[in-house]
Amino acid sequence: MPVGISQPQNLRAPPNERLQPFGVRVSLPVGDPMRKLLGPQWHRLHWYATPDERDAAITEMSRRHEYSRATDVPSLVFEKVEKLAESRGL
Q: pTM for the complete prediction?
């Protein structure tokens, strides 16, 4: 018998039951000073149900923030990734 979540209100987000095979891998470019703090292998994965959702998220994540200074340049690398087994129903 599966064990349920005893305090679901304490979850950061409700559990997602739908497949999310399309992702974005966010990492730091080579030479970025933050790599010294976070490590050269640091990355973060974000998953989405459709390629359109993923592409919209990349556009939003990579845009210039309205509160940025004129000389600020975003220094993140966005890479499309995919869970092939989920996306192809294998």
A: 0.73
Q: Using DSSP, how many helices (H) and how many strands (E) does the chain show?
A: 3, 3
- Count the helix, strand and coil residues of the chain and give each as a percent rounded to the nearest 5: 25, 20, 55
Name the residue ranges covered by the structural domains of the chain. Answer: 18-63+75-87
Residue 66 in tokens: 């309205």
Of the listed ranges 17-21, 30-34, 82-86, the least confidently predicted one is 17-21
pLDDT at position 68 is 80
Residues 90 and 85: their CA atoms lie apart, in Å, by 5
β-bridge mates for residue 24, sequence order: 46, 80
26: CB partners within 8 A, 6+ apart: 43, 44, 45, 46, 61, 76, 77, 78
